[in-house]
Design goal:
mainly alpha; globular
């Protein structure tokens, strides 16, 4: 069993490394270009693969970690939702598909679970419970925006692209955070939150840039 866990952890780290490298690369190259799309596919494969492997690892003896399990699910949601956003291009479809609703509703439930655990942990004085509140609140915010988008996406011009950028950047933040916490062994509260703060600033910058670009002259 221990040998299997070791192989699983190595595979998880390898795929996560691919996700981190290609994620940073896709952020630096021209958006929408061939290289960006190829790196984006590798990023998605790396992140989803790494996160899927992390789910059973988080329940194995000696590696039990409910928070990392939930973060793995969160990362999968971000990548899937980010890629699904591209299907909402103008005239691509008339309404949200069942897959879109399942992805968002599933993350909504996990976000509420994280908020519940975080609230209970803070009241009981459990260490790092604030992390459940931060990521649960972020997940709730994103999924609520998902359902609002599904309701009126046909009336919007470029929200699908803004959603794509936001979700994929958030997934990259998760990759960077995992590298700092697991790869470098820095597990304090600042290490968990700082990448999210910096990444959020970058996401806001891109959203403002895209909205300015799409607004009428």
């Amino acid at each position: 069993m221990q040998q299997f866990i070791t192989y699983a952890i190595y595979t998880h780290a390898f795929l996560g490394g691919i996700g981190l490298i290609t994620g940073v690369g896709s952020m630096l190259v021209k958006k929408g270009g061939r290289l960006h799309k190829r790196m984006g596919k590798l990023f998605s494969i790396g992140m989803v693969g790494s996160s899927l492997i992390s789910l059973p690892i988080a329940w194995m003896p000696g590696h039990e970690n409910l928070f990392l399990f939930l973060i793995g699910l969160f990362t999968i949601y971000l990548v899937l939702a980010g890629n699904r956003s591209l299907t909402f291009k103008p005239r691509a479809k008339e309404k949200a598909a069942i897959a879109d609703l399942i992805i968002s509703f599933g993350m909504l439930l996990f976000s509420l679970l994280m908020l519940t655990l975080g609230t209970f942990g803070v009241l009981k004085g459990v260490g790092n419970s604030v992390l459940y509140l931060v990521f649960g609140g972020f997940g709730l915010f994103l999924t609520v925006r998902d359902f609002l988008f599904y309701k009126k996406f046909s009336d919007s011009k470029g929200d699908w692209l803004l959603n794509h950028i936001s979700r994929m950047m958030a997934a990259l933040i998760a990759s960077v955070t995992a590298f700092i916490v697991a790869g470098l062994g820095i597990g304090n509260l600042i290490a968990w939150i700082l990448p999210s703060v910096l990444g959020t600033i970058y996401i806001i910058y891109w959203r403002l840039k895209m909205k300015k670009k799409m607004s009428p002259a």
